[in-house]
Amino acid sequence: ALLITAMGPDKVLLVAGVSDDLIAQGAHAGQWIGEVAAVVGGSGGGKPAMAQAGGGNPDRIDDALELARQQISDLLG
What we know:
Elements: E1 2-7, E2 12-17, H1 20-24, H2 29-39, E3 43-46, E4 50-55, H3 61-76
Antiparallel strand pairs: 1-2, 2-4, 3-4
Helix pairs in contact: 2-3
């Protein structure tokens, strides 16, 4: 799984990618990024393998990244 972030003074851009083996285990980039984007005050979505999102609260990026890590760790067991 891969999560790329870019930030400006008042916005965040997120792009997520999920490998085929993680998709087989139930991961979905669109669902994952939607939950992560909510932490930074945004929304997004996409397909199982790739998705993008945006938000307006860059101050919460550390919380969003921690959620992203935790979700993938939970999936991997």
